[in-house]
Amino acid sequence: MLNGKVALVTGAGRGIGREIARTLAREGAAVIINYNGSRERAEEAKRMIEEEGGQASLYQCNVSDFAACEAMARDLIKEYGHIDILVNNAGITRDGLIMKMKEEDFDAVLDINLKGTFNTIRHFSRQMLKQKSGRIINISSVSGILGNAGQANYAASKAGVIGLTKTMARELASRGITVNAVAPGFVDTEMTKVLSDEVKEAACKQIPLGRFGQPSDIAEMVAFLASEKAAYITGQVISVDGGMNM
Protein backbone atom coordinates (compact mmCIF):
# COMPACT_ATOMS: atom_id res chain seq x y z
CA MET A 1 0.00 0.00 0.00
CA LEU A 2 1.07 3.55 -0.73
CA ASN A 3 -0.91 5.36 1.95
CA GLY A 4 0.66 8.70 2.85
CA LYS A 5 2.82 8.76 -0.29
CA VAL A 6 2.77 11.55 -2.86
CA ALA A 7 3.26 10.54 -6.49
CA LEU A 8 3.87 12.68 -9.57
CA VAL A 9 3.06 11.05 -12.91
CA THR A 10 4.09 12.99 -16.00
CA GLY A 11 1.96 12.79 -19.12
CA ALA A 12 -0.87 11.32 -17.06
CA GLY A 13 -3.84 12.70 -18.99
CA ARG A 14 -4.33 9.62 -21.14
CA GLY A 15 -3.16 6.13 -22.06
CA ILE A 16 -0.54 4.42 -19.95
CA GLY A 17 0.06 7.51 -17.83
CA ARG A 18 -3.58 7.76 -16.85
CA GLU A 19 -3.72 4.09 -15.88
CA ILE A 20 -0.54 4.47 -13.81
CA ALA A 21 -2.07 7.44 -11.99
CA ARG A 22 -5.29 5.52 -11.31
CA THR A 23 -3.44 2.47 -10.06
CA LEU A 24 -1.19 4.44 -7.70
CA ALA A 25 -4.25 6.25 -6.36
CA ARG A 26 -6.03 2.95 -5.74
CA GLU A 27 -3.00 1.90 -3.71
CA GLY A 28 -3.47 4.98 -1.52
CA ALA A 29 -1.08 7.55 -2.98
CA ALA A 30 -2.01 11.18 -3.47
CA VAL A 31 -1.42 11.53 -7.22
CA ILE A 32 -0.38 14.65 -9.10
CA ILE A 33 -1.42 14.45 -12.74
CA ASN A 34 1.09 16.31 -14.87
CA TYR A 35 -0.05 17.33 -18.34
CA ASN A 36 0.98 19.79 -21.01
CA GLY A 37 -1.64 19.59 -23.76
CA SER A 38 -5.26 18.79 -23.03
CA ARG A 39 -6.53 20.02 -19.67
CA GLU A 40 -9.84 18.34 -20.47
CA ARG A 41 -8.22 14.91 -20.56
CA ALA A 42 -6.28 15.61 -17.38
CA GLU A 43 -9.49 16.66 -15.62
CA GLU A 44 -11.15 13.47 -16.85
CA ALA A 45 -8.31 11.42 -15.33
CA LYS A 46 -8.70 13.34 -12.06
CA ARG A 47 -12.44 12.72 -12.05
CA MET A 48 -11.93 9.00 -12.63
CA ILE A 49 -9.54 8.78 -9.70
CA GLU A 50 -11.87 10.68 -7.40
CA GLU A 51 -14.85 8.55 -8.41
CA GLU A 52 -12.80 5.53 -7.37
CA GLY A 53 -12.19 7.10 -3.97
CA GLY A 54 -8.67 8.33 -4.68
CA GLN A 55 -6.96 11.69 -4.30
CA ALA A 56 -5.64 13.61 -7.31
CA SER A 57 -4.60 17.08 -8.39
CA LEU A 58 -3.45 18.66 -11.65
CA TYR A 59 -0.27 20.48 -12.64
CA GLN A 60 0.42 21.77 -16.13
CA CYS A 61 4.07 21.74 -17.15
CA ASN A 62 6.05 21.08 -20.31
CA VAL A 63 8.66 18.68 -18.95
CA SER A 64 11.12 19.57 -21.72
CA ASP A 65 11.41 23.05 -20.15
CA PHE A 66 14.16 22.99 -17.49
CA ALA A 67 12.98 26.12 -15.70
CA ALA A 68 9.33 25.03 -15.77
CA CYS A 69 10.26 21.71 -14.14
CA GLU A 70 12.20 23.59 -11.48
CA ALA A 71 9.11 25.68 -10.76
CA MET A 72 6.92 22.57 -10.67
CA ALA A 73 9.20 20.92 -8.12
CA ARG A 74 9.25 24.06 -5.99
CA ASP A 75 5.46 24.43 -6.08
CA LEU A 76 4.65 20.79 -5.37
CA ILE A 77 7.16 20.41 -2.55
CA LYS A 78 5.81 23.59 -0.99
CA GLU A 79 2.26 22.26 -1.24
CA TYR A 80 2.81 18.64 -0.19
CA GLY A 81 6.03 18.81 1.81
CA HIS A 82 7.45 15.71 0.17
CA ILE A 83 7.50 13.78 -3.10
CA ASP A 84 7.87 10.03 -2.72
CA ILE A 85 7.24 8.64 -6.20
CA LEU A 86 8.22 10.13 -9.55
CA VAL A 87 6.97 8.39 -12.69
CA ASN A 88 8.45 9.75 -15.91
CA ASN A 89 5.87 8.73 -18.48
CA ALA A 90 5.53 11.81 -20.71
CA GLY A 91 6.51 10.97 -24.27
CA ILE A 92 5.77 11.63 -27.92
CA THR A 93 6.48 9.99 -31.28
CA ARG A 94 7.38 11.59 -34.60
CA ASP A 95 8.03 8.50 -36.69
CA GLY A 96 9.81 8.39 -40.03
CA LEU A 97 12.74 6.82 -41.82
CA ILE A 98 15.96 8.56 -40.87
CA MET A 99 16.72 9.65 -44.44
CA LYS A 100 13.50 11.66 -44.43
CA MET A 101 13.37 12.64 -40.77
CA LYS A 102 13.25 16.36 -40.08
CA GLU A 103 15.68 17.78 -37.55
CA GLU A 104 12.83 19.33 -35.58
CA ASP A 105 11.13 15.93 -35.29
CA PHE A 106 14.29 14.35 -33.93
CA ASP A 107 14.80 17.21 -31.48
CA ALA A 108 11.18 17.27 -30.30
CA VAL A 109 11.18 13.58 -29.38
CA LEU A 110 14.53 13.78 -27.56
CA ASP A 111 13.44 16.94 -25.74
CA ILE A 112 10.28 15.41 -24.28
CA ASN A 113 11.24 11.77 -23.86
CA LEU A 114 14.83 12.06 -22.66
CA LYS A 115 15.52 15.63 -21.58
CA GLY A 116 12.12 15.76 -19.88
CA THR A 117 13.10 12.73 -17.80
CA PHE A 118 16.40 14.38 -16.91
CA ASN A 119 14.66 17.63 -15.98
CA THR A 120 12.24 16.09 -13.50
CA ILE A 121 14.88 13.84 -11.90
CA ARG A 122 17.25 16.78 -11.66
CA HIS A 123 14.78 18.90 -9.70
CA PHE A 124 12.81 16.34 -7.67
CA SER A 125 15.76 14.18 -6.61
CA ARG A 126 17.02 17.02 -4.42
CA GLN A 127 13.98 16.64 -2.18
CA MET A 128 14.32 12.85 -2.21
CA LEU A 129 17.94 13.20 -1.12
CA LYS A 130 16.81 15.29 1.85
CA GLN A 131 14.18 12.68 2.68
CA LYS A 132 16.67 9.84 2.18
CA SER A 133 13.92 7.98 0.37
CA GLY A 134 12.14 7.90 -2.97
CA ARG A 135 11.10 5.86 -5.95
CA ILE A 136 11.84 6.98 -9.51
CA ILE A 137 10.30 4.92 -12.30
CA ASN A 138 11.06 5.83 -15.90
CA ILE A 139 8.97 4.56 -18.79
CA SER A 140 11.26 3.38 -21.56
CA SER A 141 10.22 1.09 -24.42
CA VAL A 142 11.07 -2.17 -26.14
CA SER A 143 12.15 0.11 -29.00
CA GLY A 144 14.92 1.45 -26.77
CA ILE A 145 16.22 -2.10 -26.32
CA LEU A 146 15.73 -3.65 -29.75
CA GLY A 147 15.49 -0.60 -32.01
CA ASN A 148 12.64 -0.18 -34.49
CA ALA A 149 12.75 0.83 -38.14
CA GLY A 150 11.15 4.23 -38.64
CA GLN A 151 11.70 5.25 -35.02
CA ALA A 152 15.31 6.39 -34.83
CA ASN A 153 14.39 9.38 -32.69
CA TYR A 154 12.03 7.46 -30.38
CA ALA A 155 14.36 4.46 -30.00
CA ALA A 156 17.32 6.74 -29.28
CA SER A 157 15.34 8.66 -26.66
CA LYS A 158 14.15 5.50 -24.92
CA ALA A 159 17.63 3.93 -25.02
CA GLY A 160 18.86 7.15 -23.44
CA VAL A 161 16.27 6.78 -20.69
CA ILE A 162 17.75 3.36 -19.90
CA GLY A 163 21.27 4.81 -19.59
CA LEU A 164 19.95 7.65 -17.44
CA THR A 165 18.09 5.16 -15.23
CA LYS A 166 21.16 3.06 -14.54
CA THR A 167 23.37 6.09 -13.86
CA MET A 168 20.86 7.73 -11.51
CA ALA A 169 20.37 4.42 -9.70
CA ARG A 170 24.10 4.40 -8.93
CA GLU A 171 24.17 8.05 -7.89
CA LEU A 172 21.13 7.93 -5.60
CA ALA A 173 21.29 4.45 -4.06
CA SER A 174 23.27 5.52 -0.99
CA ARG A 175 20.35 7.72 0.09
CA GLY A 176 17.76 4.97 -0.17
CA ILE A 177 16.36 6.11 -3.52
CA THR A 178 15.64 3.46 -6.14
CA VAL A 179 15.57 4.18 -9.86
CA ASN A 180 14.16 1.67 -12.34
CA ALA A 181 12.77 1.61 -15.85
CA VAL A 182 9.78 -0.20 -17.31
CA ALA A 183 9.98 -1.04 -21.01
CA PRO A 184 6.54 -1.66 -22.53
CA GLY A 185 6.06 -3.42 -25.83
CA PHE A 186 2.98 -2.87 -27.96
CA VAL A 187 0.20 -1.66 -25.68
CA ASP A 188 -3.46 -1.15 -26.57
CA THR A 189 -3.73 2.66 -26.35
CA GLU A 190 -4.91 5.54 -28.53
CA MET A 191 -1.45 5.55 -30.10
CA THR A 192 -1.74 1.95 -31.32
CA LYS A 193 -5.44 2.09 -32.17
CA VAL A 194 -4.65 4.19 -35.25
CA LEU A 195 -2.45 1.42 -36.69
CA SER A 196 -3.84 -0.53 -39.62
CA ASP A 197 -4.98 -4.11 -39.14
CA GLU A 198 -2.03 -5.26 -41.24
CA VAL A 199 0.46 -3.48 -39.00
CA LYS A 200 -1.23 -4.82 -35.86
CA GLU A 201 -1.17 -8.36 -37.23
CA ALA A 202 2.52 -8.07 -38.11
CA ALA A 203 3.26 -6.71 -34.64
CA CYS A 204 1.41 -9.56 -32.94
CA LYS A 205 3.57 -12.05 -34.82
CA GLN A 206 6.61 -10.59 -33.02
CA ILE A 207 4.99 -11.13 -29.61
CA PRO A 208 5.28 -14.65 -28.19
CA LEU A 209 2.08 -14.16 -26.16
CA GLY A 210 0.34 -13.20 -29.41
CA ARG A 211 -1.45 -10.06 -28.27
CA PHE A 212 -0.96 -6.42 -27.34
CA GLY A 213 -0.59 -5.53 -23.67
CA GLN A 214 -3.03 -3.43 -21.69
CA PRO A 215 -2.19 -0.17 -19.89
CA SER A 216 -2.95 -1.98 -16.64
CA ASP A 217 -0.07 -4.40 -17.32
CA ILE A 218 2.35 -1.49 -17.23
CA ALA A 219 0.62 0.26 -14.33
CA GLU A 220 0.76 -2.78 -12.07
CA MET A 221 4.51 -3.09 -12.60
CA VAL A 222 4.98 0.61 -11.80
CA ALA A 223 2.91 0.22 -8.62
CA PHE A 224 5.07 -2.71 -7.57
CA LEU A 225 8.30 -0.77 -8.14
CA ALA A 226 6.84 2.13 -6.15
CA SER A 227 6.05 -0.10 -3.19
CA GLU A 228 8.13 -1.33 -0.27
CA LYS A 229 8.07 -4.78 -1.87
CA ALA A 230 10.60 -3.47 -4.41
CA ALA A 231 12.90 -1.80 -1.89
CA TYR A 232 15.90 -3.92 -2.96
CA ILE A 233 15.44 -3.43 -6.70
CA THR A 234 17.27 -0.61 -8.44
CA GLY A 235 18.97 0.10 -11.76
CA GLN A 236 16.81 -2.45 -13.54
CA VAL A 237 15.01 -2.37 -16.89
CA ILE A 238 11.91 -4.53 -16.68
CA SER A 239 10.33 -5.46 -19.99
CA VAL A 240 6.55 -5.75 -20.01
CA ASP A 241 6.19 -6.77 -23.63
CA GLY A 242 4.63 -10.21 -23.94
CA GLY A 243 8.05 -11.75 -24.54
CA MET A 244 9.27 -9.60 -27.45
CA ASN A 245 12.63 -8.95 -25.82
CA MET A 246 13.71 -12.53 -25.19
In short:
This protein is α/β, with parallel strands linked by helices. It is built from nine helices and seven strands; from the N terminus they run E-H-E-H-E-H-E-H-E-H-H-E-H-H-H-E.
Give a verbal description of the structure.
- It contains nine helices and seven strands.
- It is of the alpha/beta class and 246 residues long.
- A seven-stranded parallel sheet has the order 3-2-1-4-5-6-7, with helices on both faces.
- Strand 1 (6-9), helix 1 and strand 2 (30-35) form a beta-alpha-beta unit.
- The radius of gyration is 17 Å and the shape is globular.
- The two termini are 31 Å apart.
Q: What is the distance, rounded to the nearest whole angstrom, between the alpha carbons of the first and last residues?
A: 31 Å
| Global mean pLDDT | 96
Helix content: 40-55%
Strand content: 15-25%
Quick one: how many beta strands?
7
Q: Rg, please?
A: 17 Å
- Uncertain residue segments: none
Which secondary-structure class do the elements indicate?
A: alpha/beta
Order of helices and strands: EHEHEHEHEHHEHHHE
The main sheet orders its strands as 3-2-1-4-5-6-7
What is the number of helical segments per DSSP (H or I, 4+ residues)? 9
What is the general shape?
A: globular
Oligomer: single chain
Largest sheet: 7 strands, parallel
